[in-house]
Amino acid sequence: MHALVQLATREWLGANSRLEQWRREFTVLMAREFPSGGRRLRHHDFDHELARASVTSGRAAMSRG
Description:
The protein is mainly alpha-helical.
C-alpha cells in the first residue's frame, strides 16, 4: 500500500477513535496467519514471500502513529 494511503487511513482511524481497535485486529490476524503454537516452523510451512511482505507492511503499520 502506498505510504500516503497508509497515512491517510491511519489519520482517519485516529480521528474516528478506531486506530487502536484496528491495531489489535491486525495483531490477531497476523497471529492467525503465522501461528507458532510454541513449535518451530519448518521451512516449507508457509509462503516466505507472503511472510516477508506481511512483516514489512506490519512493521510499518504498527510503528507509525
